[in-house]
Write a structure and sequence with these properties.
Length: 531
């Protein structure tokens, strides 16, 4: 079976992972030094957020040179060394690719600015004499004006001009970039904004942005995403990837609610997998989760692609915080929303076991394994996410889930590096350092290490099917062949467990007067049932 069908993939957000050179920003030397930690955690692969040369206006999702490493992270030689070292530890390496837009510092955009209106250089982007009504995903209009009066499209920040994917040079450039990194041994690519590359011809206004027109109906492509032509691009890319042999894969960042349209990206000659954002956004509620799981399995079965299970990433509020809120489906970042972190953490432990027990691949965002919460009280001047600025602070942005990891010690920067951390870490993280958690069998880190090891060893886990078991209200229970059962208690009462030997539990199991043990609320357990 191909490794990516059931891999546990750890997301490394490089500038917040570990700092090797003491400048307060994570880098490749820091990552290399911590590879044994990742090997011992028990993951199969790493996904590295963009490491390319970048002005970092959007944390590296603004690329100035797709064939160079940002100097704050290291050099191309460092990258090659890390790929090799990861492979020696048995870890595959997936790198991010950002094809929807470049940085405004990219030579192509600089040439376009110089060459002026009507020039061939401007055709690689979307320049127009008038903007349309599209809004930036980061807030505000999706158009900015240049000195000669023309406007250019940017679905994200104004420093991220959208490329024109109808232009043959854009297409040729990206297949060449894929080859550049495949030649250096990467095992796959995570495709940023994968459904938005192609825009509707003529860039018409979007009806959903007219307040007095009916809103856009699901099931049809929007003017700025999910155009049918985007699939040709991925078929081309797939041919390139497959020509390298081995077991390489694509994972798409695809935020589409319509399951039919989502599944089209996972047809056998396109992408291998895509992130499951429906699962990430789902409330901590048995019925809602069961529904999302069923829909996920049905959607993927049609195209024979393995599902993925994602709880957090560098763009959303950390789930230990989300699950402690009254509205557990709320993914926003307003500091006014209170959260009970004790409750959120218990649920995060249970959710980890749920996500690792389901068939398919599972993602771990760095710090999930330490149970890190979202950080809300960052000083304004430290905040770097353009979302904060573009929404005038209404949305706090994503810095709170990107705070550098606490590795050890009693005070910030908690051994992140020798020279501080680019975002301040809360003092309470003293309790959450990797070093401290390693010495505590009941810690989140110990739970992740055990569960990932069992997941790897258990024949039942990984790719394949599952069957729901009868269970009481508020309880999710399913079995997988041969002889594995997962029970998650989302109710408010302790529940009886079916017969079986506990393999991993997210909380201490209660004693039953007679018969099997009992599972407390907001907890999960894996059982070997031996049938
Ligand atoms: C999705 C990435 O995950 C996010 O961090 C980035 O800001 C946008 N795409 C734009 O590239």
């Amino acid at each position: 079976m191909s490794w990516w069908r059931d891999a546990a993939i750890y997301q490394v957000y490089l500038r917040s992972f570990a700092d090797g050179d003491g400048d307060g920003v994570g880098d490749l030397a820091g990552l290399e030094a911590r590879l044994p930690y990742l090997r011992d955690l028990g993951v199969d692969a790493l996904w590295l957020s963009p490491w390319y040369d970048s002005p970092m206006a959007d944390g590296g999702y603004d690329v100035a040179d797709y064939r160079a490493i940002d100097p704050s992270f290291g050099t191309l030689q460092d990258a090659e060394r890390v790929i090799g070292a990861a492979h020696q530890h048995g870890l595959k390496v997936i790198v991010d690719i950002v094809p929807n837009h470049t940085s405004d510092r990219h030579p192509w955009f600089q040439e376009a600015l110089r060459a002026g209106a009507g020039s061939p250089e401007r055709e690689r982007f979307h320049f127009r004499n008038w903007p349309n009504n599209w809004q930036s995903r980061f807030g505000g209009p999706a158009w900015s004006q240049v000195d000669d009066g023309q406007w250019y499209l940017h679905l994200f920040d104004s420093t991220q001009p959208d490329l024109n994917w109808d232009h043959p040079e854009v297409r040729a450039e990206f297949t060449s970039i894929l080859r550049f990194w495949l030649d250096r041994g990467v095992d796959g690519f995570r495709i940023d904004v994968a459904a938005r590359l192609v825009k509707q011809q003529g860039l018409p206004d979007k009806p959903e942005e007219h307040p007095d027109l009916p809103s856009f109906a699901d099931g049809k492509p929007a003017a700025d995403k999910d155009r049918p032509e985007v699939h040709e691009i991925y078929r081309d890319w797939r041919r390139v990837l497959d020509s390298y042999g081995g077991e390489r894969c694509f994972v798409g960042e695809i935020w589409l609610d319509d399951p039919e349209r989502f599944a089209r990206y996972l047809r056998p000659d396109e992408l291998h997998t895509a992130f499951n954002f429906a699962f990430l956004k789902c409330a901590w509620e048995a019925g809602a989760l069961r529904d999302v799981i069923d829909r996920t399995l049905a959607t993927h079965a049609k195209v024979a692609a393995p599902p993925t299970w994602v709880l957090s990433n560098h763009d959303v509020t950390r789930h230990a915080t989300r699950y402690g809120r009254e509205d557990t489906a709320f993914t926003g970042r307003l500091h006014r929303v209170p959260s009970d972190l004790g409750l959120g953490t218990r649920r995060a432990r249970a959710a980890a076991l749920l996500s690792m027990a389901l068939p398919g691949g599972v993602y771990v965002y760095q710090g999930d394994e330490l149970g890190l919460p979202e950080v809300f009280d960052l000083p304004e001047e430290a905040r770097q996410d353009p979302v904060f600025r573009r929404t005038a602070g209404l949305d706090l942005g994503r810095d709170g889930c990107r705070v550098p990891l606490p590795w050890g010690g009693e005070a910030p920067p908690f051994e992140f590096g020798a020279g501080g951390a680019w975002l301040p870490q809360p003092r309470e993280w003293r309790e959450l350092t990797a070093a401290r958690q390693l010495g505590d069998a009941d810690s989140m880190l110990s739970l992740y290490r055990l569960a990932l090891r069992v997941r790897r060893d258990e024949e039942a886990l990984g790719d394949g099917g599952m069957r729901w078991l009868e269970s009481g209200e508020g309880v999710l229970a399913f079995e997988r062949d041969p002889g594995f059962t997962c029970v998650v208690n989302l109710s408010r009462r302790e529940v009886d467990l079916p017969e079986g030997a506990p393999l991993v539990a997210s909380a201490e199991l209660g004693e039953a007067a007679a018969g099997p043990a009992r599972l407390p609320p907001d907890a999960a357990v894996w059982l070997r049932t031996g049938n």
